[in-house]
């Protein structure tokens, strides 16, 4: 699913009115009516007090349309205008007149937080104060109103975006943002719903279709894209009946040191389970027996050193190499990695200590082959790009590193973000059960396995991140967040593949729940 920028959304609105020959007021009517339909379907006329707080722009206009329909359908609705500016939008004013025609209870004007009404925790708050037009911090009294929403504990439904969030930059003050239980977003979810610092402002979100011009939606390239089954399924490479293991490539996993051979075990097993034809592990001598005994399917090559890797030499011709897991960062291993990179021409996935070594010696970056994949967790990323001031700054820094060295960078975490040059892909699978040792090693194995069997680096990365999270989502059903371990994720890779071909359970766009609330 494309994530449109604020400018693209405004342009889509404008083009829609032009091509469908409707006014912006008509489009607002559609938007507000969609919100009303959504509430009406769920409330079925219930007389719970609904407090609709409207700003003075078009987001407020949506709120007024909603309040009018709620009123005419007999709901118990109280409407407020949070009068933060005298510059009211045209469509706000039109709808302000329209609501006055259907009710004797005109919207209550608020110019400070002192006249905030009493709101019971079982009431409903609709937040239509700011939409995507927010361009500077809300006034202090408006922020106080947002805090009063929260203090009331009433269910809070935000229209389009929780008020106080920008679409394209970080917030300055967490207290000046509405904490929504649910956000109904027009046409496309907003990027900030997925970033660590701002995802928490809405527990769930859902997209409402307001009939924006189809051609525009289909043909407009966005900088960000949400990755779910719909995007992944077309990347899948089916197997032919007469295929043999030679068709699915040879993957090489290089890593391990004394006490960290398990990382190579996990990556090699997940590499096999992702479908690679052959998998070889290259480890220090101490890893030989445990690997041979525990995964008979994997071939093992060893370094001459017992406890660490000192010289990466092999007599096979792999199609893809995953390197760095459990590797250690001692001097000898750093040198071995550098010598290897100087001669390597293979597709590479670099993880863990592989990244730490590169972060220590940045000149190694230029030795990486085109479209090398780096899979840093937050600490490794910080070593690589330095500290960032906020999520947007982080993404900018990752994009410039990716562009400068032609790298695919997997920023791991809840909603893993894959960055390639200026484009970002946000994964939708995965859960907090994955915050456990070794799950990153599993991801490295899957990406390497997919490249080995013929996937191009970028599709391989998207596919792997999706499947890795999906496997964990399947496994967590049996194990729960606490007892899920990396090996369980490997065991469910098969089910995650099969799941790709199951029809979706819901026909409409499901609501998306932020993980922290589960
Ligand atoms: N453009 C359209 O045709 C449609 C717009 N829609 C709604 O319109 C919203 C965007 O509306 P607007 O562009 O009017 O913007 P908002 O309603 O988000 O904000 C209103 C205006 O307040 C001003 N402002 C921004 N930050 C402020 C601050 N901190 N203090 C005081 N004033 C501030 C800005 O001039 C801004 O335009 C969307 O989020 C969506 O809800 C929907 O009705 C669908 C159709
Ligand atoms: N809260 C979370 N929600 C979803 N995915 C998560 C969460 N925490 C961690 N993960 C995923 O688990 C993996 C952890 O990788 P990493 O930190 O490298 O683990 P390790 O180094 O132990 O192998 C990443 O793929 C990351 O995206
Ligand atoms: K809002």
Describe what you observe in this structure:
(6S)-NADPHX binds at residues 58-62, 131-137, 160, 263, 326, 377, 441. Residues 9-218 form the YjeF N-terminal domain. The structure is a single chain. The chain is an alpha/beta fold and 518 residues long. The protein has two domains: 2-222, 3-Layer(aba) Sandwich (Rossmann fold), CATH 3.40.50.10260; 248-500, 3-Layer(aba) Sandwich (UDP-N-acetylmuramoyl-L-alanine:D-glutamate ligase), CATH 3.40.1190.20. Helices cover 39% and strands 17% of the residues. The protein has helices at residues 6-19, 24-43, 58-72, 90-102, 140-152, 214-219, 229-232, 261-273, 288-294, 331-343, 352-360, 378-385, 391-405, 439-452, 457-483, 486-491, 493-499, and strands at 2-3, 50-54, 77-82, 108-110, 124-128, 155-159, 180-186, 202-208, 224-227, 250-254, 278-283, 299-302, 320-323, 347-350, 372-374, 407-411, 417-420, 423-427, 512-513. It has an eleven-stranded mixed beta sheet, sandwiched between helices. It has an eight-stranded mixed beta sheet with strand order 4-3-2-5-6-7-8-19, with helices on both faces. The longest helix has 27 residues, at 457-483. The mean pLDDT is 95. Potassium ion binds at residues 59, 127-131, 158-161, 163.
């Amino acid at each position: 699913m494309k994530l449109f920028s604020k400018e693209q959304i405004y342009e889509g609105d404008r083009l829609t009115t032009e091509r469908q020959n409707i006014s912006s007021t008509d489009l607002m009517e559609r938007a507000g009516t969609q919100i009303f339909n959504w509430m009406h379907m769920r409330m079925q006329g219930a007389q719970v007090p609904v407090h609709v707080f409207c700003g003075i722009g078009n987001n407020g206009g949506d709120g007024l349309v909603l309040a009018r329909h709620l009123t005419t359908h007999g709901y118990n609705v109280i409407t407020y205008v949070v009068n933060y500016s005298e510059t009211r939008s045209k469509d706000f004013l039109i709808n302000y007149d329209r609501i006055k025609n259907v009710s004797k209870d005109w919207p209550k004007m608020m110019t400070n937080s002192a006249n905030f009404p009493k709101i019971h925790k079982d009431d409903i708050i609709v937040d239509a104060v700011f939409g995507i037009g927010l361009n500077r911090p809300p006034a202090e009294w408006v922020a106080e109103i947002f805090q009063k929403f929260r203090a009331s504990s009433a269910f809070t439904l935000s229209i389009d975006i929780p008020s106080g969030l920008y679409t394209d930059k970080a917030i300055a003050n967490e207290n000046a943002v509405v904490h929504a239980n649910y956000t109904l977003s027009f046409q496309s979810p907003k990027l900030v719903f997925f970033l660590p610092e701002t995802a928490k402002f809405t527990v769930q979100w859902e997209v409402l279709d307001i009939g924006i011009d189809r051609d525009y939606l289909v043909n407009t390239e966005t900088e960000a894209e949400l990755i779910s089954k719909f995007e992944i399924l077309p990347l899948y490479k089916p197997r032919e009946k007469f295929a043999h293991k030679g068709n699915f490539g040879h993957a090489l996993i290089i890593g391990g040191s004394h006490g960290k051979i398990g990382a190579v075990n996990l990556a090699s097993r997940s590499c096999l389970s992702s479908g690679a034809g052959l998998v070889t592990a290259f480890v220090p001598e101490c890893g030989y027996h445990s690997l041979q005994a525990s995964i008979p399917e994997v071939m093992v090559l060893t370094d001459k050193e017992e406890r660490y890797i000192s010289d990466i030499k092999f007599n096979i011709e792999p199609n893809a190499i995953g390197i760095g897991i459990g590797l250690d960062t001692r001097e000898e291993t750093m040198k071995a990695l550098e010598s290897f990179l100087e001669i390597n021409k293979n597709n590479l996935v670099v993880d863990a200590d592989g990244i730490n070594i590169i972060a220590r010696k940045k000149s190694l970056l230029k030795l990486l082959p085109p479209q090398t994949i780096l899979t840093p967790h937050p600490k490794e990323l910080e070593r690589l790009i330095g500290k960032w001031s906020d999520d947007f700054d982080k993404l900018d820094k990752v994009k410039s590193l990716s562009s400068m060295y032609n790298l695919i960078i997997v920023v791991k975490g809840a909603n893993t973000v894959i960055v390639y040059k200026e484009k970002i892909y946000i994964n939708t699978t995965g859960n907090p059960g994955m915050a456990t040792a070794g799950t990153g090693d599993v991801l490295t194995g899957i990406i390497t396995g997919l490249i080995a069997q013929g996937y191009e680096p970028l599709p391989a990365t998207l596919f792997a991140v999706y499947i890795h999270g999906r496997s964990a989502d399947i496994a967590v059903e049996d194990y729960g967040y606490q007892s899920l371990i990396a090996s369980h994720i490997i065991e469910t890779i098969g089910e995650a593949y099969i799941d790709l071909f199951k029809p979706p359970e819901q026909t409409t766009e499901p609501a998306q729940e932020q993980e922290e609330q589960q």
